[in-house]
Design a protein that fits this description.
By secondary structure, this protein is α/β, with parallel strands linked by helices. About 45% of the residues lie in helices and about 15% in strands. The protein contains 18 helices and 15 strands. Strand 1, helix 10 and strand 2 form a beta-alpha-beta unit. Helix 1 packs antiparallel against helix 3 and helix 6 packs across helix 8. The chain starts with a helix and ends with a helix.
């Protein structure tokens, strides 16, 4: 008896822990339909509420130990405390859910709705822990398959989570010998609903995509694969400037490879180079040499005008020298390629007596004077903002001296005739934030990312899986440019158009560029009209279903 029990629990753990797309996505349909029920089959018979909670806690604790294992690739030891804290919090949530899964209680279908709705609210609550923890909703198990993924267009990833819990509880009820065949057939048919829906949704849009195939945007997505700035040490400022000059040399060479192609938009990743936008540190003569080496001697003819924003003159012992800033580099590259350039970079702004720092994305086109900017809104605790004086002293041990200021609103840019919204790093894992871009008129989502703090891990793939869900939720295409990560493009149905490299572990550090002719087909979805409100409202109503038959449940 005990061997059978623990064998089922172990099988359930294998399917749940490794069924994510970032691991073995082909196990996802099993995790989404039966894996949790195999675990609950054993724990639901426990009379002790405490015992059910403990089993549920440790089961999900070790599931998340696998799914968050990318944390352990971080170079600093403080990450272990964050890792254990997240495992504990996730374990408590699932332990509480398991406490409520008791054999005679789940016989009531209203109670099944109650538990599924409760889980949605618990997952959604994670968005309010520190900056928000959006990773690992159980709905991810339905995201690997292109057909079941389409259900996210109705209620986002949290609808997928509702379906996963609901389907597993239906299967658990089918294990009752009294109604086994009927219930088993019902749970099987219910599990197929997302796939049938997806088939019809894709069929509906394919002919529309073909009809609008001429509407395209030509993009160059650049993956720089530069080391994280904070992990480097320089003996002097001059040495650091020389290092950044070499980074620009690499960027210019990557862009120059596709200079003959008709480019509309070039995308450079998050925090692409140090020193911000306007600090004039680079000798003009050196910049001219880099550009002529990459693009030929005719590049000089496209050099931007020297003005107060990109240029200064310093008198040295060797005479007067002209120095330019990062904006000068970007403007010159834009003029050479006749394309707009979107780039992640640090920017500053004086607000009264205080100087604010931002992790930003700027759009540069030719020699225009106004530079539109988007400021990152979801900042990473410890890495980008430091909560509390005690933690500030700890962060200083790791070279983190100050906090960024979070942005306050979505920003929609334009390239050619296409409006696009911007997300920086893991902001794209928040469906509610990305929805704001859609409501502002975005026909495309562009993500700038650097997953370099977690090298050679599964974070880039898990990060990518979330971005793919956003395409279906919003009904828009999405492209990503990474420093390290997965640089790729998806259409509005979540289908991969192109990707830099194939092996997510080995090639996430590849330096290269990806030319994409991206179809800009977009459409309205139910989720893009309602956001999370619809699934949260439905889940709240599901909580009220506990009243049905409550006397029988004896809660």
């Amino acid at each position: 008896m005990y061997i059978k029990r623990y064998a089922l629990i172990f099988l359930s753990w294998i399917l749940v822990a490794f069924g994510q797309p970032a691991w073995f996505g082909f196990l996802g349909p099993l995790a989404a339909s039966i894996a949790f029920s195999l675990f609950w089959k054993e724990t639901a018979t426990f009379e002790s509420s405490k015992k059910r909670f403990i089993y549920g806690f440790f089961f999900f604790f070790f599931v998340q130990a696998v799914q968050f294992s990318w944390f352990l690739s971080h170079p600093y030891y403080y990450i272990y405390f964050v890792y254990l804290a997240l495992l504990t919090l996730y374990g408590i949530q699932f332990g509480f859910l398991t406490l409520l899964v008791k054999k005679n209680w789940v016989e009531n279908i209203g109670y099944v709705f109650f538990l599924s709705g409760l889980w949605v609210w618990m997952e959604w609550s994670r968005l309010f822990w520190l900056s928000g923890v959006s990773f690992n909703p159980v709905g991810l198990y339905l995201s690997e398959n292109i057909f079941s993924l389409q259900t996210a267009s109705l209620g986002g990833v949290y609808l997928l989570s509702f379906l996963v819990i609901f389907t597993n509880l239906l299967f658990l009820r089918s294990l009752d010998e009294t109604h086994k065949i009927r219930r088993l057939a019902g749970s099987f048919l219910f599990a197929l609903i997302p796939y049938f829906f997806g088939f019809f949704q894709i069929s509906e849009h394919l002919h529309k995509i073909e009809h609008e195939k001429e509407k395209k945007l030509n993009l160059l997505l650049v993956q720089t694969a530069f080391p994280i700035e904070e992990t480097l040490s320089f003996s002097s400022k001059a040495q650091k400037v020389a290092y950044v000059m070499d980074e620009w040399k690499e960027i210019a060479a990557l862009i120059a490879k596709d200079k003959e192609k008709p480019l509309d938009l070039i995308v450079l990743p998050e925090m692409c180079v140090p020193f911000g936008v306007y600090s004039c540190l680079f000798p003009l003569t050196h910049v001219e040499k880099v550009m002529t080496d990459a693009f030929g001697k005719t590049a000089i003819a496209s050099r931007p005008d020297l003005d107060e924003y990109v240029f200064k003159v310093e008198n040295t012992s060797h005479g007067a020298y002209s120095f330019v800033n990062n904006l000068f580099w970007i403007k010159w590259l834009s003029r050479l390629t006749n394309a707009s350039i979107l780039m992640g970079i640090e920017d500053v702004e004086d607000r009264g007596a205080k100087r604010e720092y931002f992790s930003s994305a700027i759009l540069v086109s030719g020699n225009q004077s106004e530079i539109p900017r988007y400021d990152k809104r979801i900042l990473v605790p410890m890495g980008e903002y430091i909560p509390g004086e005690f933690l500030k002293s700890i962060a200083s041990w790791y070279g983190i001296q100050s906090s960024f200021t979070p942005g306050s609103a979505a920003k929609v840019f334009k390239a050619k005739d296409t409006s696009f919204g911007v997300a920086i790093c893991y902001e794209e894992t928040f469906g509610n934030l990305m929805l704001e871009n859609k409501k502002e008129g975005a026909e495309l989502l562009v993500n700038l990312t650097s997953d370099g703090w977690f090298p050679d891990s599964r974070l880039p793939k898990q990060h990518l899986d979330h971005s793919r869900i956003r395409t279906v939720e919003m009904g828009v295409a999405l492209v990503r440019s990474c420093n390290t990560g997965v640089t790729a493009a998806f259409d509005s149905l979540g289908r991969e158009i192109k990707q830099l490299g194939k092996d997510f572990i080995d090639l996430q550090n590849e330096r290269g560029s990806l030319f994409v002719e991206l179809p800009i087909y977009h459409y309205k979805t139910f989720y893009s009209q309602t956001g999370d409100a619809a699934i949260l409202g439905f889940s709240f109503l599901s909580l009220l279903f506990i009243n049905k038959g409550r006397r029988k449940l004896k809660l």
